Amino acid sequence: MVERLVPDELWELFQRVVPPAPVRPQGGGRRRYGDCEVLVAIIFVATTGCTWRQLPPVFGPSGPTAHRRFTEWSTARVWAKLHRVILDELGSRGGLDWSRCAIDSVNMRALKGRGKKGSKIHLITERTGLPISVAISGANLHDGQALQSRVRGIPPIRSRRGPRRRRPAKLHADKGYDYDHLRRWLRSRGIRNRIARRGVKSFTRLGRHRWTIERTMSWLGGCRRLHRRYERKAEHFLAFTAIACTLICYRRLAA
């Protein structure tokens, strides 16, 4: 199970971004569980959706121990860094297609009501559906308000040849992004837009290129911890979202 959840190549990539363990100046204390053991436990919680206290003892660290390390690494932005490292590996191997990207969002229900219940995950994927930019917001945020921040949030990713890249040639979006100021903003950044227009029906071309991001949204469901928002802190919910995107990209890298 350990090899299935955290293969050797994924562990090597994780070691690039994990911060060193803190040292107690006074010495002593209990033995700190190894990072690999805790990483396996965190991935298990993310993919199965179990609570921290339901974590099987076979992994070694207890649920509270794994949760403390998860909090520590989330504060250090380890999961976002790991996602970017894997994107760099994919880019250097020519595994990313920047010719056509897509943006969309999906609502995730919350365990308890907070205004409009749940959170929204905003995602930009490259042509084949690999997530390259991700963020979360309240469920009441309109999709159009997230486009600029998500495009700016695309990190500079390595290419097989030439400089790093962070702008797609073309961006596809549904009618929730149908605003002229967004089209002008994309053109000013040298990005062609393919945004569906409200009131215009096209049964022959609807979803012709945006289906890949819909498939990616279903891939996020493989991280069962995202089926419903249990985390009170947005930082933790974003961390699980980044873990899901990391696993999606790693599967492509391993293939």
UniProtKB/TrEMBL annotation:
Source superkingdom: Bacteria
Residue span(s) of domain Insertion element IS402-like: 7-83
Transposase IS4-like domain segment(s): 102-247
One Pfam entry name: DUF4096
PANTHER family in UniProt: BLR1914 PROTEIN, PHP DOMAIN PROTEIN
Protein name, per record: IS5 family transposase
Species this chain originates from: Streptomyces eurythermus
